[in-house]
Amino acid sequence: MDKDLTYKIKELKKEKNARILAHYYQPPEIQDLADSVGDSYYLSEIARDCPEDVIVFCGVKFMGESAKILSPDKKILMPSLDAGCFMADTINEEGVKKLKQEHPDALVVCYINSTANVKAYCDVSVTSASAIKILNNISTKKIVFLPDKNLGEYIAEQFPEKEFIFWDGCCKYHNDISVYEILELKKKYSDAEVLVHPECKKEIRELGDYVGSTSGIISYANDSNNKNFIVATEEGILHELNKNNPDKNFFIPGKNVLCPDMKKTTLENLYSTLLNMENEVDVEESIREKALNSLLNMHKLAE
Ligand code: 13P
Ligand code: SF4
């Protein structure tokens, strides 16, 4: 049945001139089917540059919205339009406006994990893979960073000469990873390297042999001679890690680290989205124009 559905999706994709993009946290069968799999930065570039008329974005809402902001003439579809992001929803338009009022002299930097409505009030977006490079290219001393306080603090540690003001947001799933869970795994696999996504708390980052984005974690593990790894991020990443490194072992701390919104994509809803060309991402034009600035600045400053 799944093989049949996979075949039908591939046929429909050709017929509709569509490209399927998937984030590393998507279910394995979706990553296997996608034309492009990657981190938030890579996928934003593909969404901007790919020649197809239709993008089916297997990810969460802010990713689909960013694709629409960058490529307004393309049809951007999502298998599940209600796949949100806990972190993005920690701040709304009023929140960012208030920060701007309180700090009129600051540059407002948002993590790409924010809604289009919020991006519309920000100067530049960043992803975890591009943030350090982008901040290196910004001379402004005072930075408002939103919505992820953990990522913000990680960036701030690299720029002690700058003043940072944070929004108190986080990713519930990364933030819940505990030191105890990592140390329990370390007891069993004392030689394991600890790979940490910067959405984790400081105390977890401090245990990391490597801290970086999903693509950074994957590159690090591919290049390392170690056999065992403790991976402090969403467990969807295991698919790519295991595919690239069949002889290495990857362990997720605790029982699981699972983002339910990332798991809302199924072969069934992907198929019906393509078949009916439904679940189109819509960003109101006046918002899109304002939000575009922050994403264009992201690509420009990350070069
Ligand atoms: P990256 O893949 O850019 O590291 O981002 C992780 C994430 O939180 C996606 O929701
Ligand atoms: Fe958002 Fe966290 Fe899910 Fe990423 S893992 S989409 S930051 S809720």
From TrEMBL:
Record protein name field: Quinolinate synthase
One Pfam family from the record: NadA
Known pathway: Cofactor biosynthesis; NAD(+) biosynthesis; quinolinate from iminoaspartate: step 1/1
InterPro entries per UniProt: NadA (IPR003473), NadA_sf (IPR036094)
Keyword Aminoacyl-tRNA synthetase: no
Gene Ontology cellular component list: cytosol
Superkingdom of origin: Bacteria
Taxonomic lineage of the native organism: Bacteria, Bacillati, Bacillota, Clostridia, Peptostreptococcales
Molecular function GO terms recorded: 4 iron, 4 sulfur cluster binding; metal ion binding; quinolinate synthetase A activity
The keyword Iron is annotated on this UniProt entry: yes
Cofactor: [4Fe-4S] cluster
Root EC class: transferase
